[in-house]
Amino acid sequence: MTGIEELPRATFTSFAESTKEDWELIMSQRGELEAALPNRILEQLELLRNDYGGFPVDRLEHSVQTATRAERDGRDDEYIVCALLHDIGDVLTPYNHPDVAAVILKPFVSPANHWMVKNHGVFQGYYFWHHLGGDRNARDAFNENEHYGYCEEFCAKYDSPAFDPSYKSNPLEYYEPLIKDFLVEIHGLVMLNFFLNSLLFES
Ligand SMILES: [Fe+2]
Ligand SMILES: [Fe+2]
User: Fold this and answer.
1) Whole-number Å distance between alpha carbons of 187 and 108
2) Cα separation of 56 and 7, whole Å?
3) How far, in Å, from the CA of 186 to the mean position of ligand 2?
4) How far is CA 20 from each of CA 66, 137, 184, 193, rounded to the nearest angstrom?
5) Would the pLDDT of 201 be above 80?
6) Which pLDDT does position 183 carry in this prediction?
7) How far is the CA of 150 from the centre of ligand 2 (A)?
8) Where are the chain's structural domains?
């Protein structure tokens, strides 16, 4: 028991019957949900541990290695978080995994970083799709996009090389404070909460 189960609840059985007071009660408990987000992300990353799928390193090592390479190349915190989370959807959505990281990160990152995460799959394809009978140049469909070079660079410098078993990556624990700070303090679920409150309770 966490105590959360004991908190008061709204009594409606349908959204159509909900009241302003119901929503004020729900929003008053929203902080619990938001505060738990970093730990949920860390738990999801943990699911990548020991999942090799035939690759030289497991999916968690690939993730921390991508982040570590970006960090050691001088990238900022936002970029490092994107690098760390870019494949978080691998085990949930094998056919469109970049979308998962993209939707998680969208409220917290720049349009360039969001586009990079969302589209990294087709840019990674340049390095191997031809071995599987695909078009390695499929990324060229985006060559007019302003973020093409930014995404190409992410894959070339950090994502593509991050399969080296001998590379000394930072462990996931090293990135726990960054994830917590980034999601809760720096880019502010507080701000998001304020925004939602102002929309819901504007009189
Ligand atoms: Fe990926
Ligand atoms: Fe990757």
Assistant:
1) 6
2) 47
3) 25
4) 45, 53, 27, 16
5) no
6) 81
7) 15
8) 39-202
Alpha carbons 85 and 83: distance in angstroms, whole number: 6
Fold of the 39-202 domain: Hypothetical protein af1432 (1.10.3210)
CA 34–ligand 1 middle distance (angstroms)? 26
Confidence at 192, pLDDT banded by 50, 70, 90:
low
Report whether 64 contacts 156 (CB < 8 A).
no
Is residue 187 over pLDDT 60? no
Could you say which ligand is closest to the alpha carbon of residue 159?
2
Q: Which ligand is nearest to the CA of 119?
A: 1
Residue with tokens 């009241």: 19
Radius of gyration of the chain (CA): 20
pTM over 0.90: no
- Ligand 1 mean position, distance from CA 97 (Å): 7
- What ligand is nearest to the CA atom of residue 120? 1
Convert the pLDDT of each residue in 41-86 to its tens digit. Answer: 999 999 999 999 999 999 999 999 999 999 999 999 999 999 999 9
Ligand 2 center from residue 62 Cα (angstroms) = 7
Q: Quick one: what percent of the chain has pLDDT higher than 90?
A: 77
